[in-house]
Amino acid sequence: MIQAVLFDFDGVLVDSLPYHIQAWQAEFSKLGARINPNDVYLREGSRAKAIGRVLYEKSGLPFTEEELDALIARKRKLYAETTRAGFTPGARELLSEIKRRGLKIGLVTGSIWENIRSVLDQGTVDLFDEVVTGHDVQNGKPHPEPYLTAAEKLGIPAENCLVVENAPFGITAAKKAGMFCVAVESTLDKSYLQEADLIFPGLQEMLENLDEILE
Fold first, then answer.
1. What distances in angstroms separate CA 115 from CA 4, 15, 46, 111, 122, one per listed residue?
2. May I ask the CATH class of domain 17-82?
3. Which of 8, 125, 143, 177 has its CA 20 to 30 Å from the CA of residue 169?
4. CA distances for 139 relative to 145, 157, 213, angstroms
5. Cα angle 103-93-107, degrees, rounded to a multiple of 5
6. Distance of CA 131 to CAs 5, 34, 85, 108, 187, Å?
7. In what order do the strands lie in the sheet with 130-132?
8. 10 - beta bridge partners?
């Protein structure tokens, strides 16, 4: 029986990923490198340092940990200055309906609080019973730690948690945590999401089938 719904943030609740990718591309272009958006989309949900390290490696550029940290800081600043991210269709309604049904709601993201606050107002933040960011865990997605941490904070067994994801790393993390996973095709085609238990085009369609999902 589902007692809690755990949401990923970027690409699930908010349409922020194009702005993240633009910021990555802008910073790496200064180094003479081109970034393939799929290298970000497929790793979405993991922490910025893990993504940045892969982007450096794929570009063939040498780097130190200090250079990686500095690039991430510049990327985050640029994202904050340029993002126009907002809610994905159906997100507000789905959160409200889940809350109305008396279920716990968690936010589980590799992102940082500053990025969350740049999109969500306090009223929306208050809908979440617990929030787990990349700073709260030792291991990011696809490791199950983020979702297991959220379940522990909520006091809900993992098998009674439903996860909503949009990327392979997040789906893998949810399944390794022993949780039921719904994927939405908000950023990737369903061919990338086959590990999920159910796949919907978006959150609006998930809302329309919520009774069936929660059975």
1. 24, 12, 14, 7, 13
2. mainly alpha
3. 125
4. 6, 20, 29
5. 50
6. 12, 33, 19, 6, 22
7. 130-132, 104-108, 4-7, 161-165, 180-184, 198-200
8. 14
At residue 139, the 3 state secondary structure works out as coil
- Describe the chain by its helix, strand, coil percentages, rounded to 5: 50, 15, 35
8 Å CB contact between 129 and 154: yes
Please tell me whether residue 38 adopts helix, strand or coil conformation: helix
**DSSP code of residue 44:** B
pTM of the model: 0.93
pLDDT digit string (tens) for 26-60?
999 999 999 999 999 999 888 899 999 999 999 99
Q: Is residue 62 reached through a cis peptide bond, with omega within 30 degrees of 0 on the bond before it?
A: no
| Paired tokens of 129 | 């019973």
Burial 30-51 (b: 16+ CB within 10 A, else e): eeeeebeeebbbbbbbbbbebb
Domain boundaries, the chain: 4-15+85-214, 17-82
**Which H or E run includes 49?**
helix 48-59
CATH top-level class for 4-15+85-214?
A: alpha beta
